[in-house]
């Protein structure tokens, strides 16, 4: 592929586009050099690679050669320091292929990793296909909302379909009291007449309240019988490339199910879509969080006020997301619900991913630990509430609900 030498894309390394000006390249290099210089905690190998990328793209002729697929750079031969490692293995992998032996009668200059012939230098500055991130494990003692939640608290189904037990039992108590007062009123005809009138009203109200309450109880039982005690619906991706989804699915099941009212969904479609556009969703009460799971390069990720992603202080072009659009689509679908989105990030090679404070944007990046701490606290506002209507709407967006009978997905109003 043109513009990529040894699997390293210099444009991606500098965080600039292929049409970037010389001034933009220089600005990007200076900013990265402050972070990647060995004196600032970087490695000599990664800094040398950064400098090579800058020197190549800053020179018009070398840049043109690089864009054609031949960087034409041999300067590394002149300034090679044999006592200095080319890379730090935790940052950049190096594969060395043994060069062909020199022909008899000829002299061959010894040099590390020649660029031509059957020997070449290969550098990997990107995902490691052999690397699998570990499942994050949190100590419950470090989760602020953990002790505040009773995992066996009785689930409260809303919206209420009946008057509730209080009014029903209250009306019954008044009705019984009327019978207690009857012997006191036997000496007066007009009092008996008044008693009969009041008794008729109380009896009617009591019957009405209890009829509605029994119907509401039947509705609750039918809902419970249909979905049982299940808290997880749908299936995360099962392909080899769906590692991040599988990790997040386990993360949600291990920690957020402590909230009795939490319902977890995997593989959701946008309204009027038939594809799994959203990896996961968690509903608790009237709060819904939509989640995308990503395998990205190690580093420090943030989002600016506009929601644009940044890595190590620079615009991140190593991956994209449409989750903000999904958040807006679900806000339109459920206008009475608080909806937010989160990108849960895992490293795609050896290294650590950290995230900054989540700004008020539709889909900020978060580490798994930050997600459990902050989003768990947000959902714990109504830890034992299940909204039946909202549940059915969200369940209707699950692409593979595993045999659960789901209502037709609501159509957007034209």
UniProtKB/TrEMBL annotation:
It comes from Crossiella cryophila. Keywords: Membrane, Transmembrane, Transmembrane helix. Residues 72-94 have a biased composition (Acidic residues). Residues 61-139 are annotated as: Disordered. InterPro entries: Diphthamide-biosynth_chaperone, DnaJ_domain, DnaJ_domain_CS, J_dom_sf, NERD. Residues 61-71 have a biased composition (Basic and acidic residues). The chain crosses the membrane at residues 188-210. The keyword Transmembrane helix applies. Residues 104-123 have a biased composition (Basic residues). Residues 9-70 form the J domain. Pfam families: DnaJ, NERD. Signal peptide: none annotated. This is J domain-containing protein.
């Amino acid at each position: 592929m043109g513009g990529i030498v040894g699997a390293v894309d210099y444009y991606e390394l500098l965080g600039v586009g292929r049409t970037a000006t010389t001034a933009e390249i220089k600005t990007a290099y200076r900013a990265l050099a402050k972070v990647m210089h060995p004196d600032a905690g970087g490695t000599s190998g990664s800094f040398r690679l950064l400098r090579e990328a800058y020197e190549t793209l800053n020179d018009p002729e070398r840049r043109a050669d690089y864009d054609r697929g031949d960087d034409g750079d041999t300067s590394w031969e002149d300034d090679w320091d044999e006592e200095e490692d080319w890379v730090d293995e935790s940052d950049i992998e190096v594969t060395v292929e043994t060069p062909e032996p020199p022909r008899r009668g000829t002299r061959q200059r010894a040099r590390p990793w020649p660029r031509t012939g059957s020997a070449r230098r290969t550098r990997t500055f990107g995902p490691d296909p052999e690397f699998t991130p570990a499942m994050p494990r949190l100590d419950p003692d470090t989760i602020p909302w953990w002790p505040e939640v009773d995992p066996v608290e009785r689930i409260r189904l809303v919206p209420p379909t009946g008057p509730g037990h209080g009014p029903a039992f209250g009306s019954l108590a008044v009705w019984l009291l009327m019978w207690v007062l009857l012997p006191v009123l036997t000496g007066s005809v007009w009092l008996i007449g008044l008693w009969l009138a009041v008794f008729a009203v109380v009896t009617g109200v009591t019957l009405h309240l209890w009829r509605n309450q029994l119907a509401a109880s039947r509705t609750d039982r039918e809902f419970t019988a249909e979905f049982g005690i299940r808290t997880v619906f749908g299936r995360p991706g099962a392909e080899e490339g769906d590692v991040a989804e599988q990790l997040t699915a386990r993360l949600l099941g291990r920690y957020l199910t402590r909230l009795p009212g939490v319902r977890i969904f995997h593989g959701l479609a946008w309204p009027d879509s038939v594809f799994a556009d959203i990896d996961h969703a968690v509903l608790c009460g009237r709060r819904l969080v939509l989640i995308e799971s990503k395998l990205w390069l190690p580093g420090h990720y943030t989002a600016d006020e506009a929601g644009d992603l940044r890595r190590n202080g620079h615009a991140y072009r190593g991956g994209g997301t449409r989750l903000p659009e999904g958040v807006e689509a679900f806000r339109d679908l459920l206008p009475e619900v608080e909806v937010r989105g989160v990108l849960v990030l895992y490293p795609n090679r050896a290294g650590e991913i950290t995230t900054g404070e989540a700004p008020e944007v539709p889909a900020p990046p978060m580490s798994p630990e930050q997600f459990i701490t902050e989003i768990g606290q947000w959902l714990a506002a109504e830890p034992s509430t299940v909204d039946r209507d909202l549940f059915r709407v969200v369940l209707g967006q699950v692409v593979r609900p595993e045999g659960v009978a789901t209502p037709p997905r609501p159509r957007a109003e034209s």
